[in-house]
Structure formats: C-alpha cells, structure tokens
Amino acid sequence: MLKTVDLNQVMVIDIETVPQYASYDGVPQHLQDLWAQKTQHQRKPEQSADDFYENAGIMAEFGKIICISLGIFYQQNNTQFLRIKSIYGEDENKILTDFSDLLSKQVPTLMFCAHNGKEFDYPYLCRRMLVNRIEIPIQLQISGKKPWEVNHIDTMELWKFGDYKNYTSLNLLAAILNVPTPKDDIDGSMVRQVYYEEKNLPRIVTYCQKDVITTAQVLLKFKGMDIISSENITIVT
C-alpha cells in the first residue's frame, strides 16, 4: 500500500508540548490531586507528584501544544522537494485554530505522517482541540472508520512490522536507514526547560522542524525512494 501513496497528498507533522503550568506550585489544587492520581503507577517509589511534573507535557490532560511543524512534498522537473512551515506561539488556542484553518483548505483525503503519531501526535491534537472547543478537522477524525479508511501514516508503526512490543526512536530509525540528521542542540526532555526557563521558543521550533525533515526522509526510505537533498528543503514563515 505504501508504494502507491501519493506524496503530494501527504503532510508530515510533529508537535512540541509542555506542561500547562511552569511549575507544580502553579497547578490548581484540584488538578494537583488529579495529577497525583493519574501518575501514581508511573512514578518511582521515591518520586513525588511534584518531582514527576516535568513530564506533564506528554499528557494532553496536563500539557499544551506550543508548536506544530508541517512538511509538504512537491515535485518540479522530476525532482522531489520538501517545504516546511511551523505554527507556534504562547496561545495554544490560536495555534490550533490556525492549524484547523490550514487543514480546511486541504483535501479531506489528506494523509498525515508522523513518528509515533498514532500514539502521540494525532490523539494529542484531537484532545487539545476538544479542550479548546475547536472542531476537529475531518482529516483527524477516525471515529467509526475502519482501520484501512484512516489516512494516518506512522513511521514507527511501519518499522514494527506487526511487533507491537517494539519501540524505536526516530533518531535510531534514521541512523539505521542511513538518513542524515542535523545535530540537535536539544532533545525532547529539554523542551520544558527551554520554554519556561530559557524562554527560547524559536530554539524549540527549529528542533520541531528538524524532526519533520527526518520523518519525511524516513518515509521516503520506506517507499524505496532517494532522500531529498538539503538544498531542496525550504523553511517558510
């Protein structure tokens, strides 16, 4: 099936998320109690709910989206190109509204591609849209659909080949498939610190864009195609 996928109908995405509050002390008491309940089986015996709060960004109930980066394939003179755009800021509602507006201009059959997207990016986007009272775009709606009707590609799922116990990071998958990746000055575990303490959102946006580029290149490998040269990758504002 992947061989027949039209890249012109694919949007590669990646999101960056952080806890909704800069520190545990700022979390309202009723949410602190719910956080403690939600994470009680995830925390190590010596870890308090406060200590574990740095992980709140990965849970849609306690986190928020600060950046969505998108990659679009296109061809010119039989050469493959990739265009990258990011939607980011302090206001999650505006980010999600702008993303929804962008999708409204795309075909309903648009296919998303993300690494671990089915477990993280896609459901996280839907949950935060619901919280922000934004109608979920048709491209993200999966309720009532059969598995083969869902236009969501997940590069991590492709690598599993049916082995549901397997987890492989994007960086590892890129390395073994010989996909060159830009050197990152941060990783996912540092996003909260860079956002709240360093207040350096552009640094996070750059990191997010790099993941989109890497995911797009990995997808091309799965399709048996050559990767896109760096001079054919454009970042637009």
UniProtKB/TrEMBL annotation:
<dbReference type="InterPro" id="IPR019288">
    <property type="entry name" value="3'-5'_exonuclease_PolB-like"/>
</dbReference>
<dbReference type="GO" id="GO:0004527">
    <property type="term" value="F:exonuclease activity"/>
</dbReference>
<keyword id="KW-0378">Hydrolase</keyword>
<keyword id="KW-0540">Nuclease</keyword>
<feature type="domain" description="Predicted 3'-5' exonuclease PolB-like">
    <location>
        <begin position="61"/>
        <end position="225"/>
    </location>
</feature>
<keyword id="KW-0269">Exonuclease</keyword>
<protein>
    <submittedName>
        <fullName>3'-5' exonuclease</fullName>
    </submittedName>
</protein>
<dbReference type="InterPro" id="IPR036397">
    <property type="entry name" value="RNaseH_sf"/>
</dbReference>
<dbReference type="Pfam" id="PF10108">
    <property type="entry name" value="DNA_pol_B_exo2"/>
</dbReference>
<dbReference type="InterPro" id="IPR012337">
    <property type="entry name" value="RNaseH-like_sf"/>
</dbReference>
